[in-house]
Amino acid sequence: AGNQERGYNTMTASWGHLGSIWGHNGGLPTAVAYLRPQRYTDEFVNREDYFTLTFFPEQYRKQLQLCGTKSGRDMDEVKECGFTVKTAACGAPYFEEAELVIVCRKRYVQDFDPAAIPEDVKEKQYPNADYHTMYIGEIVEVLSK
User: Fold this and answer.
1) Cα(105)–Cα(44) distance, rounded to whole angstroms?
2) What is the pLDDT, as a whole number, of residue 51?
3) Residue 51's CB: how many other CB atoms inside 10 A?
């Protein structure tokens, strides 16, 4: 998330899904991502109108583990991983090394409501009460190798 002029950040995420909403004949194609508020990338997704989801071949597992355990606040993850930043037509960054890129226009943002989360889930997933924010993005472009 981000852009070349004002900066960007990346992270490895494991929660999300694809689907459709708000329309007839299948609805608006969407990707949904969930970010915790303390993640550095959350600042960039909040700031910008577009974000990308990138999917890498298995050979990049080590780099993706780094992006899932270190923060861009503390280091240049992109440089450390050796990723090459490209820019989608909308200005959102993605990585040349990815085999699939989904470019999304942010359409809906909602913080999780702690009162609506089952207690057993809160105990297991949210011991620090750091509830996710849900981002629904309209899929506007798909890049594939």
Assistant:
1) 13
2) 96
3) 27
Amino acid symbol at 104 = C
Hey, what's the torsion of the CAs at 84, 88, 93, 96, to 10 degrees?
-20
Q: Is 62 helix (H, G, I), strand (E, B) or coil?
A: helix
Report the pLDDT value the prediction gives residue 64, as an integer from 0 to 100.
83
What is the full DSSP assignment across 29-55? EEEEEEE-TTSHHHHHHHH-SEEEEEE
- Cβ pair 31, 1 in contact under 8 A: no
The SS3 call for residue 128 is coil
- Residue 75 is predicted with a pLDDT of 73
Q: Which of 92, 96, 132, 98 is nearest to 114 (CA)?
A: 132
Which residues are 108's β-sheet partners? 136
Q: pLDDT per residue over 91-112, tens digit each?
A: 999 999 999 999 999 999 999 9
Cα–Cα distance measured from residue 49 to residue 76, given in angstroms and rounded to the nearest whole number: 23
pLDDT digits (tens, 9 = 90+) for 109-122: 999 999 999 999 99
Closest by Cα among 82, 96, 21, 20 to 52: 96
